[in-house]
Design goal:
The protein has helices spanning 7-17, 22-29, 33-40, 48-58, 62-66, 71-83, 93-99, 101-130, 132-155, 163-191, 204-214, 220-225, 230-237, 242-261, 264-273, 278-285, 289-297, 341-344; strands at residues 308-314, 319-323, 353-358, 366-376, 386-394, 405-406. By secondary structure, it is α+β, with helices and mostly antiparallel strands. A hairpin with a 7-residue loop joins strand 3 and strand 4 (366-376).
Amino acid sequence: MPVIGIAGSRIRERRIDKGMRQADLAQTVGISPSYLNLIEHNRRRIAGKLLSEIGRALEIAPDQLTRGADTAILDGLRGAAAEMSLPVEIARTEEFAGRYPGWGNLIVAQAKRLASLEQQVQVFSDRMTYDPELAGSLHEVISAVTSIRSSASILVGGENLDADWEARFHRNIYDDSIRLAESSEALINYLDSSKADGTPHLAPLEEVEATLAKAGYHFPAIEEKGQAAIGAVMQDAGLRGAAAKTVLEAHLKTYAADAKEMPFNTFSSAAATTGYDPVQLATQFGVETAAVLRRMSCLPAGGEHPPMGLAVADSSGALLLVKHVAGFAMPRSGAGCPLWPVFTAFSRPNQPIRAEVTLPGANAQRLLCYAVAHPIGTIGFDVPQLLRSTMLVIFDQPQGVAPAISVGVSCRICPRDSCAARREPSVL
């Protein structure tokens, strides 16, 4: 298949690195220098025999000249651009990542580090403002300091005190100093959320997602023992915050319930047999469609099953869980694209949605999405209906007949000016 884009630039860079003149390379492969010049400036297509001969002359595998940038790097670069208000050449993202993958990885890593630090600052800010435990600790410190100051002011006030009263004040100062030291130590321990290994603090949802990602979203112990294995999994996770532990425990209980209704081996075989059709699977196992979407996202990728991502949101549009895979990313902070099926499903509760979507970019892959919104909590008169939407994203599925929906990551870096859902101008 002909390749356009960065192949010519890579040929030129490789030739220069080897100290070879353009005329010499052209003569070696049997083309004119002017034609090679057009190839190196990405103005002519190159493929097949000519690509192989150039690779042989430059002592490099042909696929290394034509291989595109890693999708994960592209997602990270676009996400980093979305967080900044500076103008960037978003249309040349793939060219940049393809030519300089090392720099691309560095930018992505720095963007993740910056987001982590900003999240840590926000967590501390929320603690300072709203946390009753912190307010109580500060009150204890201030109370101890005030008591010490009061007792000390009496001792240095010049009044004649008998020995018993003077000893009592000294004792009060000593007791209050002990209380101050203990309360100060407790306050410092509470605020110091970093581990000895330098791991940055994460919000509870992010901490849970990191734990799930480390496990590959699959827990063999729970598959085998069900609810009885949750305690051991929680202990192995080693979460720091009580909130993260609560969120993870709720997720694992749901996971165990899904595993009980849909045993792994049976479900894995049925999913492949039905072509990953969640409605058929829901009917076959007698469960809700949302449960099937969650269960499908836990199937190990590679081999039999294609990569699958997952997003769960509430009615406010807040993302409660995101399973990122290469080629699929949604912003954890800030407003994402409202055209994703996970959000449009709220307009049709209990109605499964099937849609194909495409992200911006010349080489954007079509993604198959299944989504459904279902009520949660109490249902009754004069009670607000609460909905939760679940979306599964599947790669490498046959293309359907319906036109794909053009979605984006964020309006800030989306090049589609005519989109009706646009909320703000693009930095592009």
